[in-house]
């Protein structure tokens, strides 16, 4: 039941100027001349974490880091033995991304805790903001790296994984950022039973809220994925005019055939009422050898399939392999799919969804229920059996690009819902 310590006179007030200031400081750290680039386990990510730590200490909040350098900011509760209420997100970006992906959720959690401090509100249980490391798997092919390390879910062999931009291992990047990779598999980590709930605010990364003309989305589930990040099709370079089709080993035609077959399967899946996405984010010949007058002998591509249905992901994965073998036979090429990476779909907590919807209605904030097509750290928490919810904030121009365009009033709408939801949970004794 609700604690008697919670009074209607306790009305925490969010500080918009503090929020704008933190976003401005993050922009200064990450701006690359076009967009934001704060690589996972980099000096830029370190500096971003430092911004959150500085503000937290200025407000008298507890600060600590775990072995992987994830940042934890805590407002102690009256009973510190109770499971903690958690929120948070990440501060790294994709190359030339925007300033709100990830950062908005971390800033939101910081604003909530700072507002509670200023209002003199002490929750019944601890409330903690986590600013995770390395959520963007473009830098290391490991989904949810920071939140997985926080729960001790990272195998020590993954520490040898090189970062995509410089080839330096995860272990060495961790060391350079003050982490202690030698404690992997041995350090104290988060225990699911000690966490009451996790709520992550994030910008929406698609156009649904824009189309619906509402500022806030209440997320029902998070897609999982199956990915091939380094597909290489090997064929034979040959003269474009002197080589009849029956003698060719054309990698571009083989790749195109695979892609069209997979797209046809995607259309069929949608026609049958199922949900998924399929993306070939890279498709390129060798610029040093491919030319106008040659049959292409090498093609590189990536395959990214996402769905909330794990069975569908497995069916599509089987189809990827089937189409690779067919293309080999039909086009006289070799298809090296490379390693497969994947993440598991996550279902959001029905009770938290209902509470968030009720809060939004009470605050007269328009909100809709919707799935998340992108992956988030919240999936890791849900996968540990922790009641988990996500809140989306309307954002024009998508995400993972410099043109992210979250309006600050929309952000404050999302933070208000977050604050009320966390305070409701944190007030339970």
TrEMBL record:
Ligand binding (allantoate): 227, 291, 306
Pfam families attached to this UniProt entry: Peptidase_M20
Family note: Belongs to the peptidase M20 family.
Record-linked InterPro entries: Amidase_Cbmase, Bact_exopeptidase_dim_dom, Peptidase_M20
One function term, GO molecular function aspect: hydrolase activity, acting on carbon-nitrogen (but not peptide) bonds, in linear amidines
Superkingdom as given in the UniProt entry: Bacteria
NCBIfam families hit by this protein: hydantase (TIGR01879), PRK12891.1 (NF009527)
Cofactor entry: Zn(2+)
Protein name per UniProt: Hydrolase
EC number, as in UniProt: 3.-.-.-
Cited Gene3D superfamilies: 3.30.70.360, Zn peptidases
PANTHER family in alphabetical order: ALLANTOATE AMIDOHYDROLASE, ALLANTOATE DEIMINASE-RELATED
Keywords from the UniProt entry: Hydrolase, Metal-binding, Zinc
Binding locations of Zn(2+) 1: 90, 101, 202
Binding site for Zn(2+) 2: 101, 136, 400
Cofactor note: Binds 2 Zn(2+) ions per subunit.
Species of provenance: Komagataeibacter europaeus (Gluconacetobacter europaeus)
